[in-house]
């Protein structure tokens, strides 16, 4: 059994994907091009924003978002500690200060009241991570940020395809980022990502930044970076995007089967008005070591997202004494189960069986 069955997905779309790849090889044009333009157009229309900008990874999407912010005196960025390192890593790399805020144990996302309390005159932005595929109430967060003249960034690396009150992930915050890392809900065959904005000037600035701050050939207005999405990945993603809605629906069906049949654990709580993209189907278990032992014995794959919160990492030594109760609790008890649109009924039954024995 595979934790995420990427091979079955490839076989399902093989003809279309192979055709795209071979066409690009025959054209020998690997950067930019019509495939990228078409993919960006389809992405923007899927999400419901004016501009979708392909880039080299979810990490570079976050990096570019922060680089595109106005230069001012404010240097604090509110982030969760229960997330993948990239969220806070890019804050530090851009000379800004992360302010770690605790999460809710229901949806594993930033707690609204705690965000409110963490806002100071130095707060420049809030990065809301849509953990495991479920969005926060980004409408309320957006309003809070607007009132305080702060930028809201959605780290939607895990939530592409999710929605809140009918609005898609990456369409609500002022700037939104996603990742096309192979195991994410929409995955490339290598690294990839995208940034979503409605503002024309911001979109243009991000496009310039991701190509070395270049406004015309060899004319550089800003210090930028190479963070382009390559043609092959764009073409592959474009094929997968066509099938994505169908996969999302399949993910809901598989999640419902887990919800209704898993015993001895707390299944994901999906809030009213939310549709999760289930980047991970993660449960809370009382004794994780014991459950993991049973997974090992049954030869069933599992993963822990994430065992050490960011504020306890060596690279964030200055924050090691901080206590974030919910973050620390969840890090100890979370466990991700095999999940993808291509998980078979038999495979899922084997996972459910493990939990029945506790
Ligand atoms: C995966 C992920 C990223 C980074 O995306 P890459 O494409 O791997 O760079 C950032 N934030 C979160 C929450 C993620 O899950």
UniProtKB/TrEMBL annotation:
Catalytic residues (UniProt): 184 (proton acceptor)
Coiled-coil region: none
Superkingdom to which the source organism belongs: Bacteria
GO molecular function: pyridoxal phosphate binding; transaminase activity
Keywords: Aminotransferase, Pyridoxal phosphate, Transferase
UniProt-listed GO biological process terms: polysaccharide biosynthetic process
A Pfam family assignment: DegT_DnrJ_EryC1
Residues recorded as bearing N6-(pyridoxal phosphate)lysine in the entry: 184
CDD domains: AHBA_syn (cd00616)
Family stated for the protein in its record: Belongs to the DegT/DnrJ/EryC1 family.
PANTHER family, per the entry: TRANSAMINASE, UDP-2-ACETAMIDO-2-DEOXY-3-OXO-D-GLUCURONATE AMINOTRANSFERASE
Protein name: Aminotransferase, DegT/DnrJ/EryC1/StrS family
The organism's taxonomic lineage, starting at the top: Bacteria, Pseudomonadati, Campylobacterota, Epsilonproteobacteria, Campylobacterales
